[in-house]
Amino acid sequence: MLRSEVDVMILAHHGADNGFTTKKFLNHIEPDVAICSSDYDNKYDHPREEIRELLHEQGIHLKTTKTGDVIIRSTGDHTGGYEVINLIGKSTKESSRVEGLFSKKSGILDANGDTLRQRYGAKKSWPR
């Protein structure tokens, strides 16, 4: 069963146009970000242009490991905010950043351990 709470998806087969990543599929899972794993010199030009266009039409941010690592980092107080950073290869410099993203499961995250420790303190107990 496909879930519709997807925030970040990893593209199938390096973003090949193989019939898996379709408009219908993307409309169902509604990701904010798609990540393509590929290297800079890939001979198949992944992600494929058709997939890049589809993601753009759907308003989905595309990040790729072609240029460097992709980092997804929680922001704020661990209750749902996150950002995605694309690094320049073999460095800590950024090539791009998407800020202000918010998890679809933020209500669940409100009760995670990090949030509870931050709210009530590390030594105090919190309601269960």
Number of helices: 4
Q: How are helices and strands ordered from N to C?
A: EHEHEEEEHH
**Largest sheet, strands/sense/barrel:** 3 strands, parallel
In the CATH scheme, the class would be Alpha Beta
Helix content: 10-25%
Tally of domains = 1
The amount of beta strand, in percent, is 25-35%
Can you tell me the CATH topology?
A: FAD/NAD(P)-binding domain
Rg, Cα atoms, Å? 17 Å
CATH architecture heading: 3-Layer(bba) Sandwich
Instruction: Give the overall shape.
Output: globular
Give the beta-strand count: 6
The helix-and-strand class reads: alpha/beta
Average pLDDT score: 83
Low-pLDDT parts are: none
**Main sheet strand line-up:** 1-2-3
Q: Would you write up a description of this structure?
A:
The chain has 128 residues and is of the alpha/beta class. It has a single domain (8-120), classed as FAD/NAD(P)-binding domain, CATH 3.50.50. It contains 4 helices and 6 strands. It has a 3-stranded parallel beta sheet with strand order 1-2-3, with helices on one face. It is globular and about 50 Å long.
